[in-house]
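Below is how a single chain appears once it has passed through the pipeline. First comes the sequence as given, then the structure the pipeline wrote out for it. We keep one example in the README because the format questions we get most often are answered faster by looking than by reading.
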Amino acid sequence: MTLPTNPSGAASEVNVNLTVNGQSVSVPAGTTIHRACERAGIDTPTLCWAENLTPVNVCRVCVVEVEGNRTLVPSCARAVEEGMVVNTDSERVRHSRRMVLEFLASGVDLDQAEGLRRWLDEYEADPGRYDQDGLPARTVYEEPKVQDNLYIRDYSRCVLCYKCVEACGDDAQHTYAIAVSGRGFDARISTEFDVTLPDSACVYCGNCIGVCPTGAIQFKTEFDLRQASDWRPDEQTVTQTVCSYCGVGCNLELHVQDERIVKVTSPADHSVTHGHLCIKGRFGWQYVQPVDAPTRQRRP
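Resulting structure:
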């Protein structure tokens, strides 16, 4: 199957008509089923998909039923066709999504994957049913890798969605510092020969952090606050500004807690960054407040 060259369908002037959950939808040719569902106001769960990355259809959380197809198809990568009839909420679809979510939740720690936990509730997933003789299912666990003051890697939270690999490779940075290593329960995201980050090809752009959906890769500042039970995203403000380091015009989103910057992101739909930044944009706010400065005490 050839992947659509234009997942958003914005450049096509030819429309395709299809039916989604009984609703007639007309979208530009080349649009994916996932985008067509969005056009119809239908929320479809995704994990390995992101609007600023090429679809790799590895997680199978977004599968839908297409009339005439023997198997369920990944909506993030399948292009619409004229007259296509799609069902996103059949029992077959719900059963498949439920099992994928249960497998993931029984194998890794998803307590920081807020978006994914919402879908666990939606599909009434019960990872505990894979326990045997009172023992929990085998889970992946290893101590977080803390090798610098910029970001950490906690593979006990990794669901192997490939998003960090894609962002490090062709879709953004073209550094290729990380890839999937090993197989089965030993599969993990790794640097070449499993060397430390400072010894690898990593340029510390942090684009892997920007796309990680589970907290497996996160800012060291966020990690430290979570360790201290002081990470309070609901109390944080987000201010959009322009990076001050060069004239490209990258937009930054400054996440501020207790009047201190705790992390920096970028809008995925921004015409310059598409959500991606360089090391200066992602981590270069130390001149505003040094990383090792005393943390402001939480107000009573």
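Residues 1-11 have pLDDT under 50 and may be disordered.

See the next section for the split statistics.
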